[in-house]
Amino acid sequence: xxxxxxxxxxxxxxxxxxxxxxxxxxxxxxxxxxxxxxxxxxxxxxxxxxxxxxxxxxxxxxxxxxxxxxxxxxxxxxxxxxxxxxxxxxxxxxxxxxxxxxxxxxxxxxxxxxxxxxxxxxxxxxxx
Length: 128
Hints:
alpha+beta, Nucleoside Triphosphate Pyrophosphohydrolase, metal ion binding, NUDIX_hydrolase_dom, DDP-like_NUDIX, magnesium
């Protein structure tokens, strides 16, 4: 298993930006949609696929990869892309396994744990 995961900082619009978060598989914390790297798929493709599978999002990756050191569970590094959300689907592969929320930056800060809060602030400063 890789020592990093790949995910998206999914933003619904730039006017009044809302961030899409999902619960971890155990449901005990809010996270960015993310997953494991795969040999035959690019990091960008993994990020888009995880956004779809975990949060029901389709959209466009609008950045190069951003790397962060994090520490929760077995994840030590997070590669995250800024993604402009084009559509939020009601039905998606993990809709029964995870909750999804669409919140302001301030609300996301309240929901995320320390390491992911740092990621949120850095990504918001850079892209919003």
